[in-house]
Amino acid sequence: MRIKSDPSSGAFYIHVREGTPFEALELAPGAYVHIDEAGAVLQLEFLSQEEFLDLTADGLELPERIEDPADWGPAELPT
What we know:
Elements: E1 2-5, E2 12-15, E3 23-28, E4 31-35, E5 41-46, H1 49-56
Antiparallel strand pairs: 1-2, 2-5, 3-4, 4-5
């Protein structure tokens, strides 16, 4: 796993595995999961630390592979 940040925008990326990104799916506002053509999770993208903290406050479990991206929906965050 690698973490890369973009100081100019505040975004950062958590690379889970190597591969060629095919699609980005919204995890929650300001947070995305990038998958390859087979649906394998490659990286997580957070537009700011606030989005990361909001989404992971209670933990975050992702599958290794997303079977059907069409069925994927953003996470429901507590208000």
